[in-house]
């Protein structure tokens, strides 16, 4: 068992520990969960270090064989990481630790089951980013569905069951489309390994089939990202799921969509994605403007953030559509940056909800008077979200637009409108909440405690470090980016 | 046929069938004349009999093809693999019968046992039938035993209603089947599959329309057993009326036998018949089966959404699954048979498992409504997790046998020539529809609170079939190559 397998299966340590401990008092359960959530983090840092050192991490084990006529189709258990996935793995484990820490004061009921499901979810996500063939990717992808379903349905807000079903139906459809695409690749290319499949499609000339698979990918990951007409489930999840879960959901799970589009779409089928680029660009533009426009009129902070996520995912699509170095690099930056920023936002939302039980902007007005530090953090997060220079949001938006202006200047020009709207809706929401007239609806409130301050600060530091010194990510993904560009150029 | 030829047959190949026959007769005699004290151990005799039959069958692994009794009894790899499913499934169902805790139907107990074995014998004869007559007799033995088993609870209105519906629908279907067979006989002048296939492989000429009519009528008749459209209406009523182990039997063993006879007849006869010059007759009729598959998946899964009675829900879900299994029948790739076999095996474990959980809860709560699952995680975490495994497998979530089965079917459909993307797409959409009702049960188990505080215990005997089914479902899901390699 290599480091990578160890990492992927490490959340099971927490799960089994909780299972063995049985139903203990809340405090013990939370302590076990918090400590065991650190194990994947440590292992992911180890994996990151090994990747940087250039040592091979890939693992392969024989699994299933199919014989279709003369063809023998082999399925392996194979793991590998590239620059993009190693960063997302690190992002996953960091956010997971923080989510477990924060949920320990947000989750009042059945915390035992809650943490077990959280670890199962983390297992699925780590598997998704470590899988080196499509089937394995799909298996882990599906594994994330079940814990998410229960986490939303059991611990969510008012419309929790409806949101959970909406989540499972949309994502189920997406993953079934993905499964058919994978089966098609499996049958035509005879393999589902990423690099072997990419190699096969480089030389084959079945343009129609390739385009079909590419569209299937776009739909499947379009549900996850989400792309405009497929987004309604995601707004529900943002609003009704417990905030600690949304940290993982908005922070990492949505990035599976971006990861899939870049790694499978651009990586395996570059030719078809070049054909689809104008469509993707227009979808990106719609996402960017539609999300921003709706974010402008929401009265709920969580809805504002949900639509802002849609808007920010539009930027990723624009970067993918640009299909050049700057564009894709920007899309990768945006994935990481939005992951951190939305995790920070929902960390703060969780903190807020414990105190006020509402995120209605009107009711919250004048928050700065009661809790100046919390309000300050909200403002900083908003500034990061609107892309203030010096923070990660700026770097990613800037690189994406650099890429898109090179290839599609008109789309780029319209897209800048979205950037302006982002500033407006972010500031409107935050200012309304923190600096409006003080209504004294909640009585006395404590400002941030130590346990809340530390996670928020950790996320903030990450955001600023990437903003000031983007090379932390750029250097890691350099090699992956070059491989992708060779595919597009060839 | 003199005594010399009779003795020259390899009777040893029929050892599994003889075992079942002898145990069945023995059981009926003991039940009739035996002392009451013996009757407690009768189920174990049945289990032992099926176990011995499985062992006999396993000894035949890798044995060459043999046909005896003038080609009416055939042993080939097809018969071997599918008989194995029938035997394993019946064994699980017998274990389910044994685990009964509520003794309401104690007087019927012996009858269930030997009727189950008689039905199993019918199914095994179908698997080995090499002649239309022996296939039909096997099928009728299976059907008649099933009619009685459904109606055994004679004081129960639903049971009688179910038995009545089953009998009438079944008789109509039988008439269809026989009628279709008569066309085939008229065309070829033989009832032996080998002869028919040989006759049909030549040019049919003006016989083509007759062959098509025979094909359609026979398929419609046999579709009754696998409960696909248009003969699916009986399924929910019969499953609801029958005792739960019998429902499980109908859902798994009877359905498998239906698929066996369909594959045997249609691939055996029509797969060779040339039609219009180049294609086989079966290949030209694929669209017909494809439409049935589409309708079956569609109706089964959509109607399942509205069910509250758990056995009706599983009935509709089993209709949907029959539709999935029709896809490899349509796609006609070299892996089709393997796909059907694997799916039926996976289906046996997960369906019997789900019925077993319902059976346990039904006996404790005297209800079959979906509310028996409400708050189950509080009452019995183990039972809730076990049910989750079966539901996940039925829904096709990775890590379970159901996923591998579905994935095989997808690969087969996409590899088919021309590729069956529409069927694969329908299956995909219907799988998501099935998520809704399977996950709804999970919502009941985990999210809702129980109405009454209490615990649900699993008795030791009840845990045996559960453990076997969980092992089968997870084992086939994680190590599918064990079964797939065994099949080659």
TrEMBL record, chain B:
GO terms for cellular component: plasma membrane. This is NADH-quinone oxidoreductase subunit N. It comes from the Bacteria. It comes from Salinibacillus xinjiangensis. InterPro entries: NADH-Q_OxRdtase_suN/2 (IPR010096), ND/Mrp_TM (IPR001750). The keyword Glycoprotein does not apply. It catalyses: a quinone + NADH + 5 H(+)(in) = a quinol + NAD(+) + 4 H(+)(out). It is found in: Cell membrane; Membrane. Its EC number is 7.1.1.-. One of its GO terms (molecular function) is NADH dehydrogenase (quinone) (non-electrogenic) activity. It is a multi-pass membrane protein. NDH-1 shuttles electrons from NADH, via FMN and iron-sulfur (Fe-S) centers, to quinones in the respiratory chain. The immediate electron acceptor for the enzyme in this species is believed to be a menaquinone. Couples the redox reaction to proton translocation (for every two electrons transferred, four hydrogen ions are translocated across the cytoplasmic membrane), and thus conserves the redox energy in a proton gradient. The gene is nuoN. NDH-1 is composed of 14 different subunits. Subunits NuoA, H, J, K, L, M, N constitute the membrane sector of the complex. Keywords: Cell membrane, Membrane, NAD, Oxidoreductase, Quinone, Translocase, Transmembrane, Transmembrane helix, Transport. GO terms for biological process: ATP synthesis coupled electron transport.
